[in-house]
Write a structure and sequence with these properties.
With about 150 residues, this protein is α+β, with helices and mostly antiparallel strands. It has a domain of about 100 residues: 2-Layer Sandwich (Tetrahydropterin Synthase, Chain A), CATH 3.30.479. The protein contains two helices and ten strands, in the order βββαβββββαββ. Strands 1, 2, 3, 4, 8, 9 and 10 form a seven-stranded mixed sheet that branches. About 20% of the residues are buried.
């Protein structure tokens, strides 16, 4: 059986940029809508999992990213330097950006595409709920969605 959570508490507003992309190489933002589906057996309480417990776990992961600039730590095209106060990024297009440290979340991925971010979210959620099959559905815009099942 499957259970799916979505809604305002699973929406995050973030800025990012993609290397070597005509339009998205500039810093821009999205209101990402995340849905998470969990699949498992009905337990002794006649549930797969308590909705509240599941929503809370997922919301805590997303809260760390909300209203942040997301930068890919493992990018081959960005040179990222950090100190206590700021994050400085140089791109392969010779652009330089400076962000206050508290406004940035460095992600251990190669690019902040919806595809790689959905894998990142999936893996974090799977660590919290390892006994279930997890599917992450991430919308960058109302017409652009990525679905990752971990397969």
């Amino acid at each position: 059986m499957k259970l799916r959570i979505s809604g305002d508490k699973l929406t995050i507003a973030c800025a990012h940029m993609l290397s070597k992309h005509d339009k998205c190489a500039r810093v821009h933002g999205h209101n990402y809508q995340i849905e998470v589906e969990i699949e498992g057996e009905i337990n002794e309480s006649n549930m797969i999992i308590d909705f509240g417990l599941f929503k809370k776990g997922v919301s805590e992961i997303l809260k760390e990213l909300d209203h942040k600039t997301l930068l890919p730590e493992n990018s081959k095209d960005f040179n990222i330097k950090t100190n206590k106060k700021e994050v400085i990024i140089s791109t392969c297009d010779d652009k330089r950006y400076r962000f206050p440290r508290e406004d940035v979340k460095l992600l251990p991925i190669e690019a902040t595409t919806a595809e790689l971010m959905s894998v990142y979210f999936h893996d974090l959620i799977k660590k919290q709920f390892p006994e279930f099959k997890i599917t992450v559905i991430m919308s960058e815009t109302p017409t652009s969605k990525v679905i990752y099942t971990g397969d």
